[in-house]
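Lay summary

Proteins are chains of building blocks that fold into shapes. Our project writes down both the chain and a compact code for its shape. Here are two examples, one after the other.
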Amino acid sequence: MSESVRLDKWLWAARFYKTRPLAQKAIEGGKVKVDSARGKAGKQLQIGQKLEVRVGLELYHITVMGLSEKRGPATVARKLYEESEESKLARERASEERKAAAAAEPRFDKGKPDKQQRRLIQKLKQKNR
């Protein structure tokens, strides 16, 4: 194993992104920080460096524990990094908040809207005119 790996290859091997081009786009889009600085796809990553990775709505604060240029099983990929406890708790809290917000919103995807839902739709349409 080498002493350093390209950031985009490592993110792909650690299974944060499904493909290297997706990892590169995320890095270019500023969704990955290395030691609190914006990362670059060609940056050589080393063991012990701290990463901040945003995947969708999830934000991971991780420490690099291993290096790999090859994508392996998820169990092996999980050993390449260690997530901080604060990060895990923050992600769980955010997930619960999103679930609570989704449960509080009226749902219109269960077939034909009832009378109350139709009135809400009419109000929205009139408001947007």
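And here is the second example, written the same way.
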Amino acid sequence: MFKEINISDLEVNPFEAVGKQWMLITAGNSEKCNTMTASWGAMGVIWNKNTATCYVRPQRYTREFIDSEEYFSLSFLPEDSRAALSLCGSVSGRDCDKIKDAGLTALFDCDAPYFAESELILICRKLYKGEIAPEGFIDPAIDGNYAQKDYHYIYIGEIVKALVKLTGDK
């Protein structure tokens, strides 16, 4: 069971939540959805809106779902879900039902899928999509992250809802 909280009441360290805890970026609908693990992202304010920014490589299957839907979610799972996060980051939903294989339970809000096993969910409405352009790199070492020249797509979403798991729920 989840409780909606005001985004301004959210107490999260984005460096810990995104960079160390990781998150699942999920999009789709009740007929078909997909998720991927991410450890690159940001949270802040742009265009007078509370936003989350995520980065998705062009070959990721989840990108097709993000592109086709108005909403996506960012789900933050507890530490004991590390195996599920690892699986969702290492196999493609094109080849298997990784949500099922990871033992995750999809729920929906604002037509965005998220997971019952999460501690925190951010429901985001897409505002912007762009592609990282290598000619913009000021530090040439950054290009070392792109041996295959598969530059990330950038998605900025307005955080329209924040949900936290009620204490005691599994």
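What can we say about the second shape? Helices lie at 14-21, 61-68, 82-90, 98-101.
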